[in-house]
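User: Just a sanity check before I run the rest of the batch. Below are the structure tokens for the first item. I only need the designed sequence back.
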């Protein structure tokens, strides 16, 4: 595919809607790079946890101190040659498994609301997207990170379906957690994400809503491809 045909696809939405799953599959189909913006915030969260820095301690730092700390973090994505999936690296270490636990999930939303954190992560994300040809998912990609993205998708699903999906995901990983604990985590994250002052979660005016409550992965992927075909057919010149 020629460079001028490449576009940016921004996928936003609520937690446990399968944004990363669809974004990864779409990136493979388009031959694009997948950027998991949520994993970047999770990597910052994990760094603080690993270094015994609480959210309160981080917030008590001066802006300059927070910038210095964040400047120590090098977050990158590399494709696992065996699974073909993009994995998160923090300062050269694969932290993909470490950043998916509930200890990180419980802290990531309030941390991502801190101005210096969002500013630094958005700057990195925009640098990654300068050359186009990317699919990025998160909470504010179509509104704050790439307001001029050629295609914007906003994903949502019934709350009970989201809770069950997240519970099933954690259970498969061997993490013991109750259904109600997952419910509390998701409801808290929804509240934090939609009410924060810094780049709150909201649908971009020109985003297409994808409610995947009753859709499987292939149906969702077809839905997004149809949106791209409708508005930017030039991006589909690559044969699947």
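Assistant: Here's the designed sequence for the first item:
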């Amino acid at each position: 595919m020629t460079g001028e045909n490449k576009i940016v696809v921004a996928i936003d939405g609520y937690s446990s809607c399968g944004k990363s799953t669809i974004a990864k599959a779409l990136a493979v189909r388009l031959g694009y790079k997948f950027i998991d913006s949520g994993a970047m915030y999770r990597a910052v969260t994990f760094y603080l946890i690993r270094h015994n820095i609480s959210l309160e301690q981080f917030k008590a730092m001066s802006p300059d101190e927070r910038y210095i700390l964040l400047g120590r973090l090098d977050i990158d994505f590399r494709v696992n040659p065996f699974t073909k999936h993009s994995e998160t690296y923090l300062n050269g270490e694969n932290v993909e498994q470490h950043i998916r636990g509930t200890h990180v999930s419980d802290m990531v939303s309030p941390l991502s609301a801190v101005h210096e954190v969002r500013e630094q992560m958005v700057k990195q994300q925009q640098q990654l997207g300068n050359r186009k040809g990317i699919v990025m998912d998160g909470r504010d990609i179509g509104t704050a990170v790439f307001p001029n993205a050629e295609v914007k998708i906003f994903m949502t699903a019934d709350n009970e379906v989201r809770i069950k999906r997240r519970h099933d995901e954690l259970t498969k990983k061997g993490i013991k957690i109750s259904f109600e604990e997952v419910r509390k985590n998701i409801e808290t994250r929804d509240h934090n994400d939609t009410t924060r002052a810094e780049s709150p979660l909201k649908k971009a005016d020109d985003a297409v809503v994808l409610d995947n409550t009753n859709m499987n992965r292939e149906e969702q992927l077809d839905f997004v491809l149809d949106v791209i075909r409708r508005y930017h057919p030039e991006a589909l010149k690559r044969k699947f």
